[in-house]
Design brief:
427 residues; alpha/beta; D-Maltodextrin-Binding Protein, domain 2; 6-stranded mixed beta sheet; 14 strands; globular; signal; transport; SBP
């Protein structure tokens, strides 16, 4: 069992324990929840998590949940390593694109038998496509958060440099270039992170919907890579055009998703495509507030919108838990309307339709914005396929993108090389 501390900082290889045994001696099941959220941090989502955990612990006497916070780039490896030694968490938070990796790694177990009756009663309230959490026909997790990727812009910076918010991708290129030039290259006009850190996530969060916007996919229905298509080439060409025009420079080679968001906070990034789940924390930074404006990502032509990936966080049952009934009770509590409303108050896009009628949403200062995000998800959301080795693929793709954007590597050939390598190595 892990120690009694509510939060444990995790480095590689530092976690191996299992929280399934009754270490309290009072007949209460000690459940370990491993998640990327930190209840002691400044992110409003972490504070909502703490309220939910405290509420669950106070609501019943059969189980007590303890939270361990692990950096999002490390948590998957930590969970899989711990599970393979007979330990690991009872409850694990998994980002949907990494779900197949956990199934292959044996760190979680199916929850169909537990969820069947609950889904029969509640499933119609789900906005999130639950089938996306199934692997080989088995339900491996339940989504608790929806997220969309939006055009972010710092209104104060656009006003300062006399730039109008873009309504097409070409306008976004021009606007970003104008801001960077006018600032003497001190402000990145439009940031697309090309660092391979954090699994190349920032790049993939742009390349995937752009490819979809041009009619293609990253992974085809048969599981093979399919991005070296006309659509993929157009998407990569659009990303390169931001660099060619001067909307960003080589500074983006050291930017991942966190660095892009930190740049928006600091006022050194004027525009980006970033997630709805990061908006509340970003606005809480000094000098940001209402200066951060979000809108659906504009498409190729005026009036069109780029598709947004359908992704989000899920809860799964650890493979080695000795208390599956109590774990399931916590998952249900986490997905209750009341808990979802707490997350909505932290700027999270709820997965249940009925939550949007709750005061936490209807009376929120950004209520109209939350509804716009919901409608964008419903109208333009795109479910992607995330194979077990998606992290390796995304890392290889962003490395190739670096060469295509800055070193003159041919786009069709660069994409084809990564695609062929991936398909040849498929398991």
């Amino acid at each position: 069992m892990l120690g009694a501390a509510t939060i444990a900082a995790a480095g590689t290889g530092s976690l191996a324990g299992c929280g399934s045994d009754d270490g309290s001696g009072d007949g209460v099941a000690d459940l370990q929840l491993w998640t990327f959220l930190d209840p002691t941090g400044t992110d409003p989502r972490g504070k909502a998590l703490q309220e939910i955990v405290d509420g669950f612990n106070a609501s019943q006497s059969a189980a007590r949940v303890t939270v361990t916070s692990i950096n999002f780039a490390k948590i998957d490896g930590e969970v899989i390593r711990a599970a393979n030694t007979g330990g690991g968490p009872d409850i694990v938070n998994i980002y949907l694109p990494q779900l197949a990796q956990h199934v292959e790694g044996g760190s979680i177990q199916p929850i169909d038998d537990f969820a069947k009756d609950w889904l029969a009663k509640t499933g119609s309230d789900y906005l999130f496509p639950i089938d996306s959490a199934k692997i080989d026909g088995e339900l491996m997790a339940l989504p608790w958060e929806s997220r969309v990727w939006l055009l972010w812009y710092r209104k104060d910076l656009l006003d300062k440099y006399g730039v109008t918010p873009p309504t097409t991708l070409d306008e976004a290129v021009a606007a970003g270039a104008a801001i960077r030039k006018a600032s003497g290259n001190k402000v990145t006009g439009f940031a697309i992170g090309l660092s391979e850190q954090s699994l190349g996530a920032d790049f993939m969060e742009k390349f995937d919907p752009l490819t979809a916007g041009y009619g293609g996919t990253i992974i085809g229905p048969d599981g093979s890579a399919s991005f070296a298509s006309d659509a993929g080439v157009q998407a990569m060409t659009m990303i390169k055009s931001f660099g060619d025009a001067g909307a960003f420079g080589r500074e983006v080679l050291t930017m991942g998703a966190d660095e892009v968001v930190n740049g928006v906070k600091a006022g050194t990034v004027a525009m980006a495509i970033a997630g709805s789940f990061r908006v509340a924390a970003t606005r809480s930074a000094d000098g940001v507030g209402a200066n951060l404006v979000t809108t659906p990502v504009p498409g190729v032509t005026a009036g069109s919108r780029l598709p947004t990936a359908v992704a989000g966080q899920t809860l799964a049952m650890g493979a080695n838990t000795e208390h599956p009934e109590q774990v399931w009770a916590f998952i249900q509590y986490y997905l209750s309307v009341e808990s979802q409303a707490k997350f909505a108050g932290a700027g999270v896009l709820p997965v249940l339709r009925s939550v949007y009628d709750q005061p936490a949403v209807a009376q929120a200062s950004n209520a109209a914005e939350l509804l716009e995000w919901r409608d964008y998800l419903a109208a333009d959301g795109k479910v992607s396929v995330y194979p077990a080795d998606y992290s390796e693929l995304s890392t290889n793709l962003v490395k190739a993108a670096q060469k295509m954007v800055f070193d003159g590597a041919a786009i069709p050939a660069g994409l084809t090389e990564v695609q062929n390598q991936y398909n040849q190595n498929r398991k």
